[in-house]
Amino acid sequence: MGAQKINAVNKDEFLKKLESIIDVIAATRPTARNLFFALERMKQAAITGKNLPDIKKVIVEEAVRIHREEADATHHLSLFGAELINDGWTVLTHCNTGPLAASGYGTALGVIIAAYRQGKKIKVLAGETRPLLQGARLTTWELKKAGVPVTLITDSMAGYFMAKGGVDCVITGADRIAANGDTANKIGTYALAVLAKENKIPFYIAAPVSTIDISLKTGEQIPIEERKPEEVTHFQGVTTAPEGTAAANPAFDVTPHKYITSIITDKGIIKEPYTEGIKRVL
Predict the structure, then answer these.
(1) Residue 130, in any domain of the structure
(2) Tell me, what's the pLDDT at 103?
(3) Assigned domain for 180 exists
């Protein structure tokens, strides 16, 4: 959309202005690998254009191609992941990973919906996902639209339900996966993975291979986005903390690969050793 509005006299000027647009978009989500994957492809597509009208045409075609490929990828990973969900299970998920957040089926939510459509009588526990409540506002809405039985819980209730035997597996998406399988996802994911390990519950990550960043050896190198403290001290303009309260707001955390049972991708399911499995699907 930004590229269509560029006025330039030659290709070099166009690409320089396009670079500024790319920088602005990249700054919005430093943690998410898919964003950079797409921006890199768009930039390369622009370079191949012969003249200004051709560049704008090529960019649109590449955007459509990326969208279609990602939609296909989520369809494939959803079917792979559904194989891991047993009939009668209760699945705990975190944040929003359905069609609203990703192309096609979605990632973790795509797996859940695919399993349900296969006739498996599953139930879902959806964490609210503070501070912006993506789980409460979006995930529950998508699951209800898909007909999947869902119960909303606060994030801090997860351990309670696991300890009581009320969770059969946990499945989340991912924003970036390092070469060793360490995974960055919405804040609170790491705590769920540790709780799952303690309670001997499988913990699955669902993400297309475009989420994998082999330039980073471990999760310690993944940049974590810090968002405005007002998201924690306020909600939809309403103050929820005393005036002047300091607040921290990292948007993501990193789950070490030792807590992950499997990584579900569009190229198949990866298990330990993750370094070898990741090389195999790329």
Answers:
(1) yes
(2) 82
(3) yes
